[in-house]
Amino acid sequence: MSALSEQEPLSAAALRVSRRWTDGKTGGTALISAATLLAILLLWVATTHWHWTSPLFLPSPSEVATQAVATALDGYANGTLLDHLLASLGRIGLALTIGIVLGVPVGLLMGLNRVARGVLSVPIDIYWGLPPLAYLPLLIIWLGIGESSKILLLSLSAFAPICFAAQAGVRSVPQERINAALSLGADTRQIFFTIILPSALPEILTGLRIAIGATLSTLVAAELIAAQSGLGYMIMSAANFLATDVVFLGLIVIAVIAFGFTVLMRFLERRLVPWKGKL
Amino acid sequence: MLSIRNASVVFDAADGSRVNALENVSFDIPPKSIVVALGASGCGKSTLLNAIAGFLPLTSGEILLDGRPVEGPGGDRGVVFQKDTLLPWATVLDNVALGLRYRGVPRAERRDHARELLALVGLQDFATKPPYELSGGMRQRVGIARALATDPKILLMDEPFGALDSLTRETMQQLLVDVWSRTGKQVFFITHSIEEALTLGTEILVMSPRPGRVIARYKADFVRDFAAAGDIGGVLNDPAFGQLRAEIRALIHHPTQTRTAA
Ligand SMILES: Nc1ncnc2c1ncn2[C@@H]1O[C@H](COP(=O)(O)OP(=O)(O)OP(=O)(O)O)[C@@H](O)[C@H]1O
Ligand SMILES: [Mg+2]
């Protein structure tokens, strides 16, 4: 997580640069990616079919599929697959909501106001530098083993990248754009709502992408340690019984969630900031 | 009346050096005048305009608007920027209507007005497009329409026609002269074209770089002939026009030789 914090500004910039360089040449990647996915699947089938490794290490696709049906219908580790999925998604959803509701205004404030930036950046930088799992025990001591400690942990993971992004968004507004609005007679409130907020939106969405990644990885790790439900908990319970097929099932579901978020963010960016990178 | 008194601007460049972008510049922009700042790239024209617009504080000197010092930007001074400053998330029409929106003009009304101005600059067919789908010259014309929409007393224009082809440029010059002769606006206009300066200016300030100074000023009247005739052709054939053009050209290319002569 601390590595992520160092990469965060870089990866956001890299994302933008790479888009500029590759736009217009992206036509064929969907097909290539699909083919690669298929190849990985085939390799998986071959490996298990000809018993290149023990089923304990690598269950066959059909075993995973059977286990998926069983877990969906009968459940595993105190809940059906849907129960675990909803528990995890609920935590992510709540944490991201808190992260956005607090992170965007705080980040905007930090971008606009020097004092706010100076004061608030200290605690945020300190906690964002820490690995979340290192301070989870502290949160558990404070808030108990229940949901609130986990939600707080995840909200902290979501808050910082969104806050940083909103701040960077404000500070990247071209001065000429503000000058133009001022000479058209805009007052401070109008400058904020018609110039600064929309200008910062692409950065905020990039921050949300990073927040989703950070929250997802923190979530599973937190559920591995201290939870009675969720995909991480399901995986950990299965691992204790060497039920590799359930472990795989959990991983696949998490991968699908991550992919779903990527698609959602792409959709949001296309809808909200079609002008990103233009002009 | 807008008065610039002993205006100087010194920039602290990033490498620690100091740039005298503007040194001791004084002039007036009286009502019904078009004051043109003419000079090569980097001689402080935009710096001067930014100071008048209130974007940039003077290092020394003052700028008075009807006797009161200019303290910041305001809707009384409309600006056409050298660089594109349109909002990419708004349509061309909404960009033109932006100043009216800031004034609280109702949506339908401000759109109607913006549509008229778009027609005036020949872009009525692009009203619903985002600005990044327009060419550079088209965007510049949107910027002109946007500045005209709020009907400011003073128009500050930074090389507004620089990105236009010569045909569109003439149309736009015509448009500016029409608006000016109809409304009597005060115009401060920047260009690096001697011909454009003479065609449009009632007063022409010739500037030289580092330090940015006004090295000569000329009164001209060609713009009134232009406005009366409704066409630029007559003015261009005026012998007085050619003579002044040659004089200014000599001044710009050999400033030290001619300064004493002029
Ligand atoms: N923010 C700044 N910091 C340092 N130097 C600056 C800054 N802005 C302008 N300058 C310098 O001041 C001088 C005048 O710049 P200005 O933009 O006013 O030129 P200009 O006459 O408008 O040129 P052009 O015709 O190319 O637009 C230049 O030498 C430029 O390098
Ligand atoms: Mg300039």
Task: Describe the overall structure.
Chain A: Residues 85-265 form the ABC transmembrane type-1 domain. Chain A: One of its GO terms (cellular component) is plasma membrane. Chain A: It is found in: Cell membrane. Chain A: This is ABC transporter permease subunit. The complex is a heterodimer of chains A (279) and B (262). Chain A is mostly helical and 279 residues long. Chain A has one domain (59-273): MetI-like fold, CATH 1.10.3720.10. Chain A has helices at 2-22, 29-49, 61-73, 81-112, 114-129, 132-143, 147-171, 175-183, 188-225, 231-240, 244-272. In chain A, helix 4 (81-112) packs parallel to helix 7, helix 4 (81-112) runs antiparallel to helix 9 (188-225) and helix 10 runs antiparallel to helix 11 (244-272). Chain B has two domains: 2-76 and 153-253, P-loop containing nucleotide triphosphate hydrolases (Rossmann fold, 3-Layer(aba) Sandwich); 86-151, no CATH class. Chain B is 40% helix and 24% strand. Chain B has a six-stranded mixed beta sheet with strand order 6-7-8-3-9-10, sandwiched between helices. In chain B, strands 2-1-4-5 form a four-stranded antiparallel beta sheet, with helices on one face. Residues 258-262 of chain B have low confidence and may be disordered. The A-B interface holds A 174-177, 179-187, 190, 194-195, 198, 273-275, 278-279 and B 50, 53-55, 72-75, 77-79, 81, 83-89, 98-99, 101-103, 130-132, 146, 150. Bound molecules: adenosine-5'-triphosphate (ATP) and magnesium ion (MG). Adenosine-5'-triphosphate binds at residues 11, 13, 19, 21, 39, 41-47, 82, 192, 212 of chain B.
Describe the structure using short key phrases.
heterodimer, A: 279 residues, mainly alpha, MetI-like fold, 81% helix, disordered N terminus, B: 262 residues, alpha/beta, Rossmann fold, 10 strands, disordered C terminus, binds adenosine-5'-triphosphate, binds magnesium ion
